[in-house]
Amino acid sequence: MLRDKPVSHLVVILFFSILGANVLGETLRIVLTFVAGGGSIVERALLDYVPYQIGPHGLNLIILSFSFELSLHFNVITLLGILVGWYYFKYSY
Length: 93
Hints:
The chain is of the alpha+beta class. It has 3 helices and 2 strands, in the order H-H-E-E-H.
């Protein structure tokens, strides 16, 4: 499987699938809070997350400065996104 496909494609596909799953999870959190109210059992089971943060990292160029921070919320929806990304990588091309 990995003989024909570069590992960089796997990293990119998993990165975007994790980001997409996080967006989907936060959207579900907003919808479930609106529909069922805060703290429902479905929200706690599917959408409770473990935060993972990288940063903030700064780059100062005297006249311009940049800062970068990445924060991901891992939950059940994120794990499903990882599985979907792996399936796409393994069977799509």
